[in-house]
């Protein structure tokens, strides 16, 4: 698996995806990892050479000299900054094709460029909240975990895109336990860590301070951690979140489990904004994605920063190699 290429899905054609695909090839053409784009070759800006392929086995010979493209006709040209619902079926088919190639052993994994959910809904009735849920459906998995990873920090939010006022109700012992287990197994399988160390944030300031600032940390989080620790997982917490992310603290764990979206994402974006990668744990295939959106405001202007895409491709290759070793 480590020698197989990564499938890079095109994402929303009107966004910065086509530019990022070309820039990524320029940066990686000499030392890899090798990848191929799945999408409409006509949507590429044309700043680098590309060559259409019929099969991922062609990538190794082509990659040093041109961007390999597994072409799909999307039926309409690209207009930077102006999403076209006509492209929706093509975008969805590209994701489905990448998953098939990864699951059939023809790609080491997939890296997904950003999609635009409204365009997918308008053009193809896309019924999923986002990429992650769609990939879980394709992988026949009920619960997957979103990790944000960079060379400086890995974080996992237990609850994600919900209002802060809804977090205490959504945060259940079963959800917390499943998230910790999936993260633990993901770090072993996809990151090659034999005994992952997890730091678990409290929900409330000062992790509740003995119940003075809320009892969720004592009554909900602590019992789950005690149960899993008795099973042999290396867990610490619940910890005050405001002391978890300085340099010395980060040396003591491999990933931080946080109770809600901003508790996890603010630290990693403050520490390493450009190199953050979105990783989906718990899937039967490797999936990474750059941690940004379609950026319609700069699409077509040559301003897109490729750092997160480059990190996402590199991490997908490393995760594929770790799965092979595991």
What does this entry look like structurally?
The model has no long low-confidence stretch (mean pLDDT 94). The longest helix is centred in the middle third of the chain and has 19 residues, at 173-191. The protein has a twelve-stranded mixed β-sheet with strand order 3-4-2-1-5-12-11-6-7-10-8-9, with helices on both faces. The chain is α/β, with parallel strands linked by helices and 326 residues long. It contains eleven helices and twelve strands. Helix content is 37%, strand content 17%. The protein is globular. Helix 3 crosses helix 4. It folds into two domains: 1-141 and 283-326, Isopropylmalate Dehydrogenase, CATH 3.40.718.10; 145-281, Isopropylmalate Dehydrogenase (3-Layer(aba) Sandwich), CATH 3.40.718.10. It holds the Pfam family PdxA. Its EC number is 1.1.1.262.
Shape: globular
Number of domains: 2
* Strand line-up in the sheet with most strands: 3-4-2-1-5-12-11-6-7-10-8-9
| Overall pLDDT | 94
Number of DSSP E strands: 12
What is the CATH T-level topology of the largest domain? Isopropylmalate Dehydrogenase
Count, helices: 11
Please summarize the sheet with the most strands.
Answer: 12 strands, mixed
Work out the radius of gyration: 20 Å
Helix content: 25-40%
Q: What is the terminal separation in angstroms?
A: 11 Å
> Which ranges are low-confidence, i.e. pLDDT below 50, for 5 or more consecutive residues?
none
**CATH H level, superfamily name of the largest domain:** Isopropylmalate Dehydrogenase
Q: What's the level 1 CATH class of the largest domain?
A: Alpha Beta
């Amino acid at each position: 698996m480590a020698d197989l290429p990564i499938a890079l899905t095109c994402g929303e054609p009107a966004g910065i995806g086509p530019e990022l695909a070309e820039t990524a090839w320029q940066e990686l053409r000499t030392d890899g990892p090798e990848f191929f784009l799945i999408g409409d070759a006509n949507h590429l800006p044309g700043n680098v050479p590309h060559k259409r392929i019929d099969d991922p086995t062609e990538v190794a010979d082509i990659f040093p000299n041109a961007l390999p493209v597994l072409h799909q006709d999307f039926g309409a040209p690209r207009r930077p900054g102006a999403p076209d619902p006509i492209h929706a079926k093509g975008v969805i088919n590209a994701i489905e094709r990448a998953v098939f190639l990864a699951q059939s052993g023809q790609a080491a994994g997939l890296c997904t460029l950003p999609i635009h959910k409204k365009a997918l809904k308008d053009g193809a009735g896309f019924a999923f909240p986002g990429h992650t849920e769609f990939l879980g459906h394709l992988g026949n998995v009920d619960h997957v975990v979103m990790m944000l990873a960079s060379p400086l920090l890995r974080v996992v939010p237990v609850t994600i895109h919900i209002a802060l006022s809804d977090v205490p109700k959504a945060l259940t012992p079963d959800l917390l336990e499943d998230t910790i287990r999936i993260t633990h197994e993901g770090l072993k399988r996809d990151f090659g860590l034999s005994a992952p160390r997890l730091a678990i944030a409290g929900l409330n300031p000062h992790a509740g301070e003995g119940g003075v600032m809320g009892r969720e940390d004592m009554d909900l989080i602590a019992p789950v951690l005690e149960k899993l620790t008795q099973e042999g997982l290396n867990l610490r917490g619940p910890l005050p979140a405001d002391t978890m992310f300085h340099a010395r603290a980060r040396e003591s764990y491999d990933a931080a489990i946080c109770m809600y979206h901003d508790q996890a994402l603010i630290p990693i974006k403050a520490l390493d904004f450009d190199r953050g990668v979105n990783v989906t744990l718990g899937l039967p295939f490797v999936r990474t994605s750059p941690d940004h959106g379609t950026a319609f405001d700069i699409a077509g202007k040559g301003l897109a920063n490729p750092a997160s895409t480059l990190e996402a491709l590199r991490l997908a290759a490393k995760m594929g190699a770790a799965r092979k070793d595991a």
